[in-house]
Batch of 3 targets.
Target 1
Amino acid sequence: MVDPISILEQHGNSKVVPMRWKERRFYLLDQRLLPWEETWLQISSAEECARAIKDLVVRGAPAIGISAAFGMVMAVKSAIDKGFEIWEYIKNAAEILKDARPTAVNLKWAVERMLKAYQLHQAQEPAVIYKLLETEALSIWKEDIEANLAMGAYGAALLPDSGTILTHCNAGALATGGYGTALGVIRAAFNAGQKIDVLADETRPWFQGSRLTAYELKADNIPVKVCVDSAAGFLMQQGIIQAVVVGADRIAANGDVANKIGTYSVAQLAKANHVPFYVAAPLSTLDPETPNGMSIKIEERSQSEVTTVAGKNMVPEGVGALNPVFDITPAELITAIITEKGVLRPPYASAIASCFN
């Protein structure tokens, strides 16, 4: 079996990876504790994997999908160890995993791919089935890294030879199997010698920009500064930002993009200031079965994520909050969608459909 991390080491020039599979044990870097602590958690079951996804130990659509694939591997092992019928056991595990985060399409895609892999080999001995599904999960991880590297090459060509690139949330190595989607584009440009500076929106309420994007770019010695979310428009107006690159959690058939809350605002500001707005996402994030962004279920999380910071209440007692986790950026605001198969441009409906023909 190919070790996905070896691909990163050989071709990615990046030190950051959010997961490990060692001696048939799965580990996740606890992203809730970054940048203060680097703590690895061993995940031993599909239920633990679903909880890690729900509690944001791991986040980012591709990383969630890969983690869920390994959750399915662990479900097979649990069924074998307990003497249960494998198919019924892993079907239940699949539902638990898919319910963990409803917006990111990679989660459903990875789980269903693992179910199909089982069905293909269900006549085999249980130990053989386990080995085959382990190989399938590793393939999903490997393919994600290869897609990120390809996206990086396509996307770097769209960025200026020098300038400041704004990104929102974290669409980097920590949100994927390694290297990253939006940050993969930035990494590729930087490694190609383009004089790129990065400006990371802090991204409330979980500060994925200031905590995670800044953390991993600093680790790879890529120049980065942080700005508050509400500064983006002014900085574009001042000519400080030359392009925006973000990731995606789901892309509808018409090109509408679901991504971290605040992405829509950045896209509108980019349009108003004539700044190109790029989305980088693998084909597994494209959802041809969802006609448009209004059809995407938007997850809403606890009010406390907004009303408290580091355990301290930031609003008067009794005041609540709205906490939608994602928003929808309409296709007409997007300059191009960068995938591992190339750059998609409007009209997106036909461009996306061509990816599946």
Target 2
Amino acid sequence: MGACWQVLKQDKGLLVFPLISGICCLLLLASFAAPLYLTNHWQPPARDAGSPQQAVYYGVLFLFYVCNYFVVVFFNSAIVACATLRMRGGEPTVGDGFRAAAARLPMIAGWAVVSATVGLVLRVIEDRSEKVGQFVAGLLGAAWTVVSFLVIPILVVENKNPFAALKESTLLLKKTWGEQVAGNFSFGLVFFLLAIPGIVAIVLGIFSGSVAVAATCIGLAVVYFITLALVQSALQAIFQAALYLYACNGQVPEGFEADLLGNAMRSKG
């Protein structure tokens, strides 16, 4: 994380990408949620519901997944493009990131459809089987996260189609580490700890007894949480780019250490 942070410090403009991505995702969510709520179709259909009702519900859900994944992957691709350029000694700009992502729109759209399909299948498993389904979906989701971890860097750098990128991601991970575990866990744990001051501010504001103090504390906490989310998103994309370069050709980007990258993911053994 420290090494990723150094990259982000050199290119603070990278925070623009998760910021725009977050805004677009919120607008997208509202555009889908509002009509579903107003028509009272936001709840999953019952198991005995007719096929037309289920088809409409899951069809709309699939469309939402596709649009959401497209937005997220597009802006993550922009971050990865800039981070890769920086790690190779270049001087990236925000414009470089947008141009790189725009040049790969067909691959990004294809990967959004693949990811949405997997997401929908996992959602159907959860809805149909309750606790058992949630357990199975959780295992399958974790496995999917592992095998697809390097797909975006491969799409960006090698300009491969989604299926070829997924195959190469799986092969690179298997060859270099086997299973990706420690990386995501470390980021999540650190940012959970970093979020504690915001939680404390909200609690203190609520128990202050003053509406003005409570509103101020909650407002500051919200800004703090948003900033943390932007930084976390950027650092994770930089992390992916660094691990891709290491797994692909053994390159150790400036500021990183070979041992850290080699131990960033934990093998099955």
Target 3
Amino acid sequence: MRILITGGTGNLASRLLVPLIRRGDDVTLLDVQESPESAIPELEKCRTVIGDLSVKDDFLELVRDSRIESIFHMAAILSGDAEDDAERAWRVNMEGTRNVLEAARLFGVGRVVFTSTVATFGAGLPEPVSVDAPQWPVSLYGATKVAGERLGVYYHHRFGIDFRCVRLAAVTAPRGAPGGASGFCSLLYKESVENGKYDFYLKPGTRAPIIYVEDAVRALLDLHDAPSDALTRRVYQVNGIKPSAEEMAASVKSRLPHVEIGYKPDPVRDAIVHSWPKELDASDATRDWGWESRYDLDQMTDAMIAALSGA
């Protein structure tokens, strides 16, 4: 299958390409940067296009000329960066998403998988939060993701686009993106292994919904590959774990006792993380395409330390 991944050299996307290549898909990556931070052998088997998906004509030409059959739309300006540069966030997250859906409509792309986020919700919802719970995000990033979900469902109903969306918790990965409010969940491990110290920008008791990158990749693949007649909805959500900052610190220190971990809460980022639900109801995903989380906190810590240490 000819697959396009937008944001293709990013944290999650660069892990997604590995199983796609290994199973024989023809993968094209689109991003504003040439390659991911970490070395990925499978990258040599991908075509990488440097470009901005918010430039409509260029993006449409890419999809048309490459005869793309399926798109994983993963490009986005994350929460912290979106607050710092709202104009860019609007252009990439809003105009870029519309361009993806227009390309699918115009050129017969068979499927669009959209990554959404727990940040589409605000505080005060009963947990686990229903997939149909009211969405009142406190960040611009969250607002653009709500709009992307709604636009994708519209294109499904209006034009028959096979739009599929999954809301993810904060993704933890060895080379995770630092630009979002969720950056702490990867930076903790990176800084602990490489520098022996880390200061959270959260309060010790602040909890966050987190999913390890291998679980997130599997959710994307499973949703993409699920038979159409098995799906009962267009938007799903998946669960991971919900540790506090101090519980994450304890998990790291139980393995790396020399690491110094402190807390210097940033009011803006701590408030964003604090507003997120801590648990999402994933029962629809479990029923329709067999979703289940496989990593708990200590398993994630072991995997992260091993990856960052080169073990």
